[in-house]
Each structure stands twice: as C-alpha cells, then as structure tokens.
Amino acid sequence: MDAQALLPLSVVSTSLVAAAGIFLLREHRHRLRTNFNLAAALIKLALVVGMALGVLAGNTYEFRFPLVEGISFVLRADALGLMFTVLSSVLWLFTTIYAIGYLEKSPNRSRFFGFFSLCVASTVGLALAGNLITFFLFYELLTLSTYPLVAHRGTAKALHAGNVYLAYTLSGGMVLLLGIAVLHGLAGEVDFAAGSGLRVLDPALDPMLTIVFVLLIAGLGVKAALLPLHGWLPIAMVAPAPVSALLHAVAVVKAGAFGIVRVVYDVYGTELAWRLEVLEPLGWLAAATILYGSIRALAQNDLKRRLAFSTVSQVSYIILGLTLLSPIGMAGGLVHLLHQGLMKITLFFCAGNYAETLGVHHIDHLDGIGRRMPATSTAFTIGAFGMIGVPPLAGFVTKWYLGIGALADGKGWVLAVLIVSAMLNAAYFLPVLHRIWFRSQSAPWPAEQYQQHRDTHPWLLLPTLVTAVFCIVAGVFAAVPFSPLHWVEIVVLPGYLP
Amino acid sequence: MNPLPWLVALPLIGALVVFLLPVRWRASGSLALLVPVGFVSIRPLASILSQGTQSHAPGGWIAPLGIGLQADGFAAGMVILTALVIVPCSIHAARSLRGKPAEEGFWPLLWFMWAALNSIWLSADLFNLYVGIELLGLAAVGLVALAGSVQSLAAAMRYLLAALLGSLVYLIGVALIYAALGSLALADLKAYGSGQPTILIASVLMTFGLLLKTALFPLHGWLPPAHGSALTPVSALLSALVIKASLCMLIRLWMSLGPEAMPVVLAWTLGLMGAGAVFWGGWMALRQTRLKRLVAYSTVAQIGLLFLFFPLVTGTPATAAALAWDGTVLMLVSHAFAKAAMFLAAGNLVFAIGSEQIADLNGVCRFRPFSLLSFGVAGISLTGLPPSGGFIAKWLLMQSALASGQWIWLPVLLGGGLLSAAYVIRVLGNAMVEGPVRDRFEAPSLPLELSALALGCVSLVLGFAARAPLAWLRAGGPFAGGG
Q: Residues near A451 by Cβ (< 8 Å), separated by ≥ 6?
C-alpha cells in the first residue's frame, strides 16, 4: 500500500475523523468546534488540490480493498470524480463558515456539525468511488447523514420533511441497489471505465441492460429530482439555510446528477447507451423536468421554495447535456454541475441572510431590501442573472455550450427548450429583483437582528460574497486554465467516443 | 488437551460455582470467569484453521454408540460469536441488574444457557442436539421469568409451552430416524438417509419442531411477549443467540441430509414463511407503541430473512448455494450483534426516560444522544444499509437469488429493508422532537452505553471485514471450496 493509494482514502477520512471529533465535543465548546471544523475543511481542500495537481501530472490514485469475494471497495481519483470533489471541498469550506454564523446561539450544534461533516465525507466518497458498489455505499451514507440535518429543528414540520425525504431517498436507494445487483449478476464487478465492462457482453442481453439502465436512473433520479420523483425537494426546504444550500448545490441533488453522469458515461459508455436507445427518452425527461420546475417556480411565494423548484429545473440541464451526442453539449452539461453549484449556493446563502437578518421568508416582503442589505442583494442579483444565463456569468457559459451542442447533434428542440427555460427563469427571478431594488420598503421587517451591522453578520456575508465572485469568475475566465470549463474539457475530450 | 468438551463443561462448572457464591458476588464472579471461558472459546477456530475439522468422542465411544462433539468452521465461529455477545451483555447485566432481585437467578441461568448453546454448536448427533435444545429452552424460560412482572410470567409460560411442544415434535422425529437407521450421528444421515419416506417424515417433524422454537411466522406468537418483557440483557441474549440455536440445528440437519435430497416444496414453504415473517414482523414492529416490543417484532422479521437460505440451496446451482450460505451466515452473525446492541440500547433509552413508550422519547436526541446513537448504529445494520454486515449479507443473498433465478426473493430483501428503516426512523424521529415534554432524564452509566455501542459497531465493521470471517465459517463445511 503506497502513499498514492492512501491519498483518496485520506481525503474521505478527513471529514470522517472531523465528524467523529465533533460528535465527541461537548455542546458548549463552540470555539474549539469552530477551529476543528475549519481546520478539517482546509486540510481536506489542501489534500484535494494536491491530488488534482497530481492527476494533471499524470499520476493515478487508486485505493482498492476487497469487501467479500466479488465486490471491492474502490476509491479512485479520475478527472470527473476530482471535478466533483473540488466543488464539494471548496463549497464545504464556505458552507461551514456560513453555518457557524447561521447557527450561532441555537441548540444541538454538535449534532449538526457532526452530521454536516459526515455528509461531506459521503459526498467526497461518492465523487471518488471507483465502482458502483462503492458509489452506492456513500450514496446511502449521504441519505443517512442528511436526515438529521433536514429534521434538525425537531418541529413537527421538520420531522415530517425528514420522513418524506427518507421515504423518497431510501426507496430510490433500494431501486438503485436492485439495478446494481442485477448488473453485477450479469457482468460481475463493473468499474467506472467508459463502458468497457458492459460493451463486451452478449448483445442478446441488451433488453436486460435497458431494464437495468431504467432501474439505475430511477434510483438516482430521486436524488436528482427528476420528474416525477422530485416531490421531496420542496418539502425538505424547512431545513436550516446552510443545509438547503448544501443539499441543493453540492450534496444530495448533485449526488443524483453525478450518479447519472457516471452511469451514462462510465458504466454504460456513450456508445452502448446510444445502441440501447436510452439517451433520447432521458433527454425528453430532462427537458420536461426543466420546463416543469420553472413553471412551478413561478407560482411560489416562499423564496426558498421558489429556489427549490428552480433547482429541480436547473439540475436537469446536467442530464440534458449528457444526452447530447456531442462533446460540446456534454461539456455544457458537466460544467453546469459546477456552475449551478456556485450559483445556487449563492442564492441560498442570500435567502438565508434575508431570513436570519430580517425574518423575511416571502417574496412579498422583499420590497426595498436592497437598501437595507446591499451586499447580500448584489450577490443575489449575480446569482439570479447567472441562472437566467446573462453573459458573462457562469450560467451563460453553460447555456451557450448546451445550445451549440444541441445544434451540433441536430436537436433543434433542445435549443427551443433552452430558450423557453431562460425566459421562464427570467420570469421568476426578475420580479424578485424588481422588488429588491426598485420598490421601497412597505412594512417593518418581520424580525430584525444584527442592527449594528450595515448588512448582516460577517460570518454570513463573507461566504455569500465569495461564492458570488466565483459565479462571475467562472464565467469571465472560462477559457483560462483551471477554470471549471477547462477542467470539464479535460474530462470530456479524451474519454469521448473511444 | 482437546478444548471441545471443556467448552461445554466450563460453563456448567461456572453455573455451579456461581450458584454456590453469595448473591452479591455472583456478578463479579461471573465476570472473572468470562476470561478463561472466552479464552477457551477461541481455541477450536485456531486449531481448525491449522488442522481441519476437530472432533472428540467422550469416553472413547465413537458413533453410532457414543455421543460425539465435532467442530467445523461454522461451529467454531458460533462458539466465538456466543462469547462475543455474552461478554458485553454480561457487563451490561452486571451494572443494570445490580441490587435487583433478578441478580440471584440471572448468573447461574446465564452459564447454563452458555453450556447449552455450546453443546448445540458442537454436537455431532441428533440426540445430543435434543438435549442441548431442551436445556437451552429451560434456561431461556427461566431467564424470561426473572423480570418478575405478571406480563413476563405469562410470556414465560407461553414460551415454555412452545419450547416443550417444539422439542417434543423434534424428539419424535429423532425416534423415527433411530428406528430407521440405527444411528443418530449427523454424518450418517446422508449415507443411509436419502429417499426413504421415514426419513422424510422424520425430517418434516424435526423441521416443524425447530420452526416453533425459532419463532418463524406464523409460529412466532410466543416471541414478542417473551423478548419484549424480559430484562434488557436477557432480551438481547435471547434475540441474538437463543433463537439462532434452533435455526442452526435446522441448517445442520438440512445440510446433513443433503439439500438435493430434500423436497423443493418444503424448502419453498420455509422461504415463503420467511417472506411472510419479513413483512408481518416489519408491519407489526411499525405499529408497536412500546420500544422493546418494537425491537422484538423486528426480530420476528429478521428471522424471516434467514429462512430464504432453504429455497436458495435446494436444487440450485452450486454458486448460488454457496452465496446463500455466505449471505445467511453473515446475516445471522451481524443480526446477532446488531440485535443485541439494539436491545441493550433500547433498555438504556427506557432507563433514561423511565418509560416504555416510544412517544415518550421526545428530547432524547438532545439530552441522551449517546444512547440513541447505539440504537441508530444497530438500526443501520438491521436495515441492511451500507456500510454494515447486514448490507453485505443482503447483497450476497440478492446475488444468490439472481444466480438461482429465484427473483421472487429480491422484493422480500429490499422491501424488508425499507420496512425496518421505517420502524427504526420512527424511533429516531420521536427522539428528535424538540419540546418541553420532559425535564428529567436518567443517565445510563458508561458500561451500559459502551456495551451497546460496542456491539453495534461490530455489526458495522463486519461490512468491511466480512471476508475473513466468512472464509473461517466455511472451513470444513459443505461450501469449504469457496464462494
């Protein structure tokens, strides 16, 4: 066992150790817990960056451990996995800072941060998983570690949300497990390797492989909030804002989307998926979800619920991009995995700031909030414009690539979906921006805190502004090395159509 | 020195010694005796791994006249499992029963139970097994009655009747076999037995008797009251070990007769009863209002999963049968750890809130998170979620079902998991409710908490470390070739 094999393991275990440490801390050791949290986040980030540089230099990092005969626990750092790892490590750092500020003075913080770390450990674990069974292991661990976060408040509503969340995700997990088990029965252990494991199978098994594909996508689609499996997402909005931010931007929803990327791209491979004719229906489903989510978002008055339906819609861009048979379209989908994360986490941070600082939850109450909280509102505006796809923000890059990819693949209808969706995005974000900036305050704020601050508590403001800046940088410097787009091109180009 | 007879004799001596001690020394005396007995328990596995199957004929009489003790990997594994579960349960009992009237009877009965269990794991003939299971039943009934409440006495009475009826039916089967073959050694069954109608009737009778003792649905009626109303460490021991004894006898019987000789109908009946147990037990667990009852019904459900073994080894390809063996054995082991952990944790929670009701758990998550953690950890393994022994076992059983083409068991395995998740979450959700319902929580002492948590952690670690134990458990058995 050499150091190169241990690196992926140590990336995962950093957060596991952090979780264990935080659970053991007594509730009142706030400062120590904060230091512990930040130290773990920074160490992890350093390890991940080191590993990313190593992969660029051509190193391979693989940790393999047999569980029982026939299945192994595999952690491997490939370009796609690292992309997701970097995203979650960076955003974890900022979400941790945000959560420390957000939960100041609230009870059960040991529990919260313990499961928070466990949640990130699972996200990184499934990003680095080298085969389906390892992926599943972390996928279920993610479900278990997010339940206490969703139900954190302990109110009847929170517990109901937790139960709905578990009912959806555990059932989805069982369907996924069934798919993995059947696939294992057909082909033995399937590593993530561009479909090389399944292509050699007897073509007579094709119908079976199609069924398995449907099972896998259905299982993963629950977390990715694909229509009609998205029901849990708006209900889970009762969770504290940093949890919603994490759930939407990095962990749960993205785990589902990332899993679908893995299945299409690495388990089946585009060639086999094309032969089975499963990509076209998946594309239609993604398009339907994009439009449905946007339309539902229009009708929501609660800011977080509007953002939740926006997530339903935006995550399906990733899946839509995946079904386009052109490298550029695929790059557009993958880069949205990163861009949507940056933009959505900014928006949720802002929603949390409004709620925590002024008690504003409803869009109706946002009138004139731009004057009271200009920095937060600027960040919100950047995130919203990014979602609409205004150049030069991150969201524009995504839509541009998706559009070009669709045309290259000869799918005009995808372009139509993109345009309609952009218009819908504008329709549900612009009225909010209008209220924020162009209306004057009509009623006193429902519950004002932090009057001494010009905007809000610095622990809440700092991460919000940093992620907002990321949204701009990712768009403006998309062509620069180490930008999300550049990394996605590394992922897509060599592995595409082997 | 051959350790096999000592594995039965030492706990018997222990029972005697503890019985002679004054009541206040019984706990510490027992804890001291755990060390040598635990040490001897490891010995058979060590010698099997170096020298193959171990056997011993007391007094030099060999079968068919004498009674034999024999240890293959499975038996040796069960001996170790017994010790590993009894040690934490004893630590828990030493603290939780201290100063209670039940302390007087608990320790001698515990040692009797251990002797009976070891004799069952190690017996090589049918009559010896009968003696073991009878002794075990009596010890277990005594342990249930120790709680002293009206409920537990009624439950113990029901348990006694079920146990006696079960062993009586089993004994009739044994008598038939002796009449037909003139031998009771397990090893002889295959040579003489296959195809004779007498043997078939005898094996159906013995199977029925053992099913009653294992509480397979719909013969489970006695189990929830007995396991739900006994003292906490007793419930843990009963659910983790005692019901496994009759199941292991059934597995041994089945493998000795040769699965190919057994009627497929009978195997499928057992499997379908198991499936019924999974859903009925899970559903009933979900509906319970008392915490320990919930855990007891969960046992009913989990037993069902173990019975999928029979259809999966009868008339199926060798690879499927080997997977079924591995999956069932691992399920048995991880269930033993997880269920013992869950009962101990449930006892701690009941102690902390001073109430049996699940609805009274509000606030526990905030004020007694440690007790709840053990419950949750055990719940993960029982639910078959990764990373746990329960998950790997479920995976192996699923692979076996796929390899044998018996797809029907897949929804049982998956649906059973969801049901167990539902009742575990019900407990956790109630514990997470915030509200000024209760302002006082007792604090379970550290040995109580740690014994529960340690057992739970073992069941989780089995998810990563199942490979070597599975290889040991196969040694000398019908699937020794690999899986």
A: none
Contact assignment for B417 to A162 by CB distance below 8 Å: no
The CA R_g of chain B, rounded to the nearest whole Å, is 21
Q: Alpha helices, DSSP H only, in A359-411?
A: 369-372, 374-388, 394-408
CA A36-A142-B333 angle, to 5 degrees, is 105
- Which chain B residue is nearest to residue A151, measuring alpha carbons? B432
Give the torsion sign (CA, A110, A115, A118, A120).
negative
In sequence order, the 6+-apart residues with CB closer than 8 A to the CB of A23 are A110, A111, A114, B373
* CB-based contact B277:B216 (threshold 8 Å): yes
pTM for the model stands at 0.92
Structure tokens at A393: 């923000």
What is the three-class DSSP state of A68?
strand
Pick left, alpha or beta for residue A157 (phi over 0 → left; psi -120 to 50 → alpha; otherwise beta). Answer: alpha
C-alpha separations of B208 from B3, B191, B212, B249 in Å = 33, 23, 6, 12
Residue with tokens 């120590």: A32
In chain B (483 residues long), the average pLDDT of successive 10-residue segments reads 83 90 87 87 82 73 67 89 94 89 89 93 88 93 90 92 94 90 80 73 91 91 91 93 93 85 88 95 93 94 93 88 92 94 93 87 82 90 89 93 91 93 91 75 87 92 89 82 48
Distance between CA atoms of residues B167 and A303, nearest Å = 67
**45-104 of A, contacting B, C-beta below 8 A:** 65-71, 73
Q: Percentage helix, strand, coil, to 5, in chain A?
A: 75, 5, 20
The complex's ipTM works out to 0.90
Cβ separation A154–B418 shorter than 8 A: no
